[in-house]
Please model this.
Amino acid sequence: MQPQVGQITKIKTIILPNGRTGDMYLLPGFEAIPVVACKPCGSLAKSNKLGWTIYELSTGLLIYSYPYSRVSEHTAIDALKIVHTMFIHRGMDAILQTIKKHFEK
Model:
């Protein structure tokens, strides 16, 4: 069980099942669903450049990918705030059901 947090909190650096390295965060009210923020990656030349990407920890499923922009510098916290808002709108039960379905496959 994760501790409760009052704000987006970095816990540690980890390696996801897909091999990407990122920082694990806890989101307020959703501490039971740790997420991992990975730095921007890809190539502009190959048109596969991604901004900050957020994955669910236990499944490694992509939750959100912040659009890459040359003009502005977005941070992991920017992407995590969007994910936190998504979680609030979706609700804890719905998110946990999605994770459970992943493991039933």
Observations:
- The mean pLDDT is 85.
